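hey so u asked for the seq, here:
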Amino acid sequence: MTQGRSGPYDSPDYGVGTPAGDVYEWFQRGMKLLQEGSPAAAAALLERAAEAEPESRSVREALARAQFNSRQYAEAADSFRLIVDANPADDYAYFGLGLALWRTGDMEAAQEPLAIAVAMSPDQRHYVSALKSVRATLQARRDM
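ran it, structure tokens below
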């Protein structure tokens, strides 16, 4: 490899397709990609980090956010569900799960995690707003 010409997947210490660096570096690069508006690229890198460190809540949350922002809603729901299962006191994970389910079109399933998020943090206006929207949609469907 020549200086300055290596890419993130060009390390002699890793196999083809494995990002260079360690899990922390993958996480940092994934977060930077997410912040720079490249959620699909972030999700790809963060998936590798989550495979290597499946118990890392910060990696899992970043992956879920990247999946959601790249419109991988079913995958984001799965990632948020893993966080909820590991830490049932995480209101943000419930909120993310509810939003991801909402985006998959499963309003019925979205309602419960959003209600839990609101119950845990009623001062979070975006939680309340999302729950109201889901409930209004469900009511409108029933009224049809």
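Residues 15 and 130 are 43 Å apart (CA to CA). Residues 125-143 form the longest helix (19 residues).
lmk if thats what u needed
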